[in-house]
Write a structure and sequence with these properties.
InterPro entries: Ankyrin_rpt, Ankyrin_rpt-contain_sf, PGG_dom
Order of helices and strands: EEHHEHHHHHHHHHHHHHHHHEEHHHH
Radius of gyration: 41 Å
Protein name: PGG domain-containing protein
Distance between the termini: 94 Å
Subcellular location: Membrane
Number of helices: 22
CATH class of the largest domain: Mainly Alpha
Pfam families: Ank, Ank_2, PGG
Number of strands: 5
CATH architecture of the largest domain: Alpha Horseshoe
Keywords: ANK repeat, Membrane, Repeat, Transmembrane, Transmembrane helix
CATH topology of the largest domain: Serine Threonine Protein Phosphatase 5, Tetratricopeptide repeat
């Protein structure tokens, strides 16, 4: 038995439309939908979930676009197609809020629709997804219109992934396509888009635009760039020529950040033909400078300096001074192999000697039966303790050196030759093992010869 609900039957008032049964969500259900508590909806079947709405006609998917969507859609897939009072589907709401993961989940859920449902609609999975993507709200906006308006790039990418690239998106009630909306966010005009494309088709579009709206040549985006700025920067010669035919003053406009004119941008990018075209049409442009006080020839000079510097570096000299190359450490594989063999013998000897010394400790062991049998006589001597520590270290370091060398051999190594870094590591550990062994030897001699001060002093 489900929670208490107020059931209201709402009629559209139009005889050709059937009455719509709506069950308004109470506070507990609304809260459950908001936090994604799917258990509260387990007692509702598909027809009941379809009629469960808020006063604004939002269904449970509109209330909460979260992880529990997949479970709700499994119970009632038709919720994907339901709209609220504004004609928005759950996909519209997800696109508006920039939830790219949820947009992907909704599309995936639509693609997983059962064959029976698709058969009723007379379409396959791909067409079912595209039909959902092309649903419009009361303002004739698709989900792509909405995502473009709010600047959610990831959502736009998810929506375009399943759409036919040749599909001509219709305009909304404000005569806007998704491209127009996206362009307006950064104050781009259609002429900006045409100038950036720069191919043969857009050259014709450029002519049509300037013939009908010639004042667009002066319009700037949020960075202060005109269409001529983009055409000059990208090296679109024909577009630059067409724009200059209609408006020469656009060549004198500087951008917001650096006050760079289209001429300076073309010079910076090394577009010589465009520089020539602009100067031939607007010779006064050469006097325009940017914020640094640079003119057209400043960029040309800097470019020449960079090329000369690169040429000098290639010849191992800068400003006629020889450049000393950084020496590289090289060592032959044969030499590494020979040193490895020697190191293996030395490391094995150190490991053997230190292991034997640990068993036959200096001073001997107590042989009397009792709790102290087998304990070294000199266990409380500080020098003896130093011997034990250094002997153990020598043994461990020699084992590390052996492991490094074994790791350099196939099949342990991914290469057939010993590597230089492994060689350095093995050599380092072998050096530490040698030092520790020498100290252990000295402490052994000292602790044994301690009664003879003359001999012990030598060590």
């Amino acid at each position: 038995m489900g929670p208490t609900l107020n059931e209201i039957v709402i009629s559209s008032g139009e005889p050709e439309k059937p009455a719509e049964n709506i069950t308004y969500m109470d506070a507990s259900l609304y809260k459950a939908a908001a936090i994604g508590k799917i258990e509260e909806f387990n007692n509702y079947q598909r027809p009941e979930l379809e009629s469960l709405k808020t006063p604004n006609h939002d269904n449970v998917l509109h209330v909460n676009l979260s992880d529990f969507i997949e479970q709700i859609l499994f119970k009632c897939p038709s919720l994907l197609r339901q709209t609220n009072a504004k004609g928005q589907t759950p996909l519209h709401v997800a696109a508006r809020n920039g939830h790219s993961a949820i947009v992907k989940l909704l599309i995936k859920s639509r693609a997983k629709a059962t064959d029976e449902d698709l058969k009723k609609l007379g379409m396959d999975q791909l067409n079912a997804v595209r039909e959902m993507l092309r649903n419009t709200d009361q303002e004739s906006n698709t989900a792509l219109h909405v995502a473009a308006r709010y600047g959610h790039v990831e959502v736009v990418q998810e929506l375009l992934e399943f759409e036919n690239p040749d599909f001509p998106y219709f305009v909304n009630r404000n005569q806007e396509t998704p491209l127009h909306i996206a362009a307006r966010r950064i104050n781009w005009t259609a002429l900006h888009a045409a100038a950036m494309a720069g191919d043969v088709g857009t050259l014709k579009a450029t002519k049509i635009i300037v013939e009908n709206k010639g004042d667009m040549t002066k319009e700037t985006d949020e960075n202060g760039h005109t269409p001529l700025h983009y055409a000059a920067h990208l090296g679109h010669d024909s577009v630059v020529e067409e724009l200059l035919k209609w408006d020469l003053l656009a060549a004198y406009v500087g951008d917001k950040e650096w006050e760079m004119t289209p001429l300076l941008m073309a010079a910076r990018q090394g577009h010589g033909q465009i520089v020539t075209k602009i100067l031939s049409s607007c010779p006064g442009c050469c006097e325009k400078v940017d914020k640094r006080g640079w003119i057209t020839f400043s960029f040309c000079g800097v470019k020449e300096q960079i090329m000369e510097l690169l040429k000098d570096i290639t010849n191992e000299e800068v400003a006629e001074k020889p450049v000393r190359p950084i020496p590289s450490i090289t060592i032959s594989a044969d030499r590494l192999e020979k040193e490895r063999e020697v190191h293996l013998v030395v490391a094995a000897l150190i490991a053997t000697v230190t292991f034997a010394a640990a068993i036959t400790v200096p001073g001997g062991l107590k042989k009397e039966k009792g709790s102290e049998q087998g304990i070294p006589f000199l266990i409380h001597d500080a020098t003896f303790k130093a011997f034990i520590v250094t002997d153990a270290l020598a043994f461990l370091f020699s084992l590390c050196a052996l492991l490094f060398h074994f790791g350099m051999l196939p099949p342990f190594s991914s290469i057939q030759r010993p590597t230089f870094l492994s060689h350095v590591g093995a050599t380092t550990f072998l050096g530490y093992a040698t030092y520790a062994m020498v100290i252990a030897f000295c402490t052994t001699i000292y602790v044994v010869l301690k009664p003879s001060y003359g001999l012990s002093f030598v060590c």
